[in-house]
Amino acid sequence: MEDTQYIVISNLQLGLAALLLLVNIGLSIALKLGLAKDLIIASIRMAVQLVLVGLILEWVFEMREPWFILLMAFFMAGLAGYSAVDRTSRRYPGIFWNSLVTIGTSAFLVTGLAITGILRVDPWFDPQYMIPLLGMVLGNALTGISLGLDRMMEGCVQNRNWIETMLSHGATRWEAAHEHIREALRTGMIPTVNAMMIMGIVSLPGMMTGQILAGAAPMDAVRYQMVIMFMIAACTALATLGVVLFAYNRLFSRDHRLMNHLIRQK
Q: How many of the other CB atoms lie within 10 Å of CB of 242?
């Protein structure tokens, strides 16, 4: 593409775009959905958060110190680990630590391999690549962790009698739990699989659209999007597997007992 300049959105244009929310607010008022106040609060909160992120990223992109970039990356991973557990309806002791370890390990592993082995970014800590890529894999991995944990704990609670019957008849903890582990993994990975199935046909992903609007050649944007989706799929699978295995090890003791009393409602 010859023209690589993108259209800069002015404050007036941004305000005109915000008027589109009147559609949602009008429907809420007309149909008495009770969402008008939430929509207004959500839109204001979104705008403030995005402006703050934009200001922080402008500052971060000017920094060339690897220690600072890594510090921000660890902060992002910690926040993602906390958010993943915060979405679950049930808890058990150590669940936050399990989430932090799995999402941090899987996200840094996949992002590191992509940056150094696939994209070959130089320097490897370039925030223009590291921060956005890490953010995308973390956002999707936390969803997988949340869904997987919810499914695992719900299965243990709902099928407690069946599990304890198996254990009492000589089944190992793995034999009693492997079906719930399988379902938890499947549940955690479904959103990513569904997104990949419809991508390019039903929807154009946000990052690809953003690159095209910024003037990138469509095929270049497509290649980047494919790399990112492969990263997301791998990270989500690793994070969900890790956290579900942590939950299995915590909820099923080594002497083959179900520790159902550890699970508590949020």
A: 20
Q: Rounded to the nearest 5 degrees, what angle is found at the Cα of 229, between the Cα atoms of 225 and 234?
A: 150
What confidence score (pLDDT) does residue 41 get?
93
pLDDT at res. 128:
85
The stretches in the chain having pLDDT less than 50 are: 1-2
Question: Given this model, what pLDDT does residue 1 score?
Answer: 42
Q: Which residue has the tokens 């083959």?
A: 256
Q: Could you tell me the residue ranges of all domains in the chain?
A: 1-62, 65-265
User: If we measure between CA atoms, which residue out of 153, 111, 131 comes closest to residue 66?
Assistant: 131
How confident is the model at residue 203, as a pLDDT?
67
Query: Distance between CA atoms of 190 and 187, rounded to whole angstroms?
Result: 5
Question: Can you list the pairs that 61-65 forms with residues at least 24 positions away whose Cβ atoms lie under 8 Å?
Answer: 61/127, 61/128, 63/127, 64/123
Dihedral pair phi/psi, residue 89, rounded to 5°: -90, -15
Q: What is the CA radius of gyration of the chain?
A: 22
Q: Are 91 and 266 in contact (CB under 8 A)?
A: yes
Q: How far apart are CA 16 and CA 63, in angstroms?
A: 34
Q: Give residue 203's region: left, alpha or beta (phi > 0; psi -120 to 50).
A: beta
Report the pLDDT value the prediction gives residue 134, as an integer from 0 to 100: 94
Q: How many CB atoms lie within 10 A of CB 12?
A: 8
Question: Which regions of 81-231 does DSSP assign to beta strands (E)?
Answer: 90-91
